[in-house]
Amino acid sequence: MATIFSRIVSGEIPCYKVAETDQYLAFLDVRPMAKGHTLCIPKQEIDYLFDMEDEGLAGLMLFAKRVARALKSTVPCKKVGVAVIGLEVPHAHVHLMPMNQVSDLSFGKPPLDMDSDELKALADAIAGNLD
After folding, report:
1. Does 87 score more than 90 pLDDT?
2. Residues 74, 129: contact at Cβ < 8 Å?
């Protein structure tokens, strides 16, 4: 059975798209831990990030770097944090989260409440800052 991320890639489930290439997709997390919390995924369904072929993993991280720069240009923050957890969805993914202090990268707090209009406007703004 396809993961929720594969269903997003196929267009079966909508997302707040930030960036896309032939191999990778970035979209806003709908249960964000911080404003701008973005997920970067390979379009190919692979369960564990470190099971990816070296070339694909390197490509994903370079894609995430591009997205992180746009994110930092859009959401005021000191840095964009990176997290790889991989337990919640069996599809390799990288979390990008704007942060001003270490605790901003916490997954133990309740998610922010953002409506669809806010998420769409934010995704469009980040996409507009891609280099």
Report:
1. no
2. yes
At residue 89, the pLDDT reads 94
* pTM, full prediction: 0.96
Q: In the 8-state DSSP scheme, what is residue 94?
A: E
Domain extent for 71: 4-128
User: Are the beta carbons of 6 and 45 closer than 8 angstroms?
Assistant: yes
Asked if 131 and 66 touch (Cβ cutoff 8 Å), the reply is yes
* Average confidence score pLDDT of the chain: 96
Instruction: Give which of 94, 6, 92 is closest to 52, Cα–Cα.
Output: 92
CATH of residue 58:
3.30.428.10
For residue 17, the one-letter residue type is K
CA dihedral 37, 64, 23, 7 (to 10 degrees): -10
Distances (CA, A) of 122 to 48, 59, 118: 28, 24, 6
Total domain count for the chain? 1
End-to-end CA distance of the chain: 35
Give the torsion sign (CA, 35, 91, 8, 128): positive
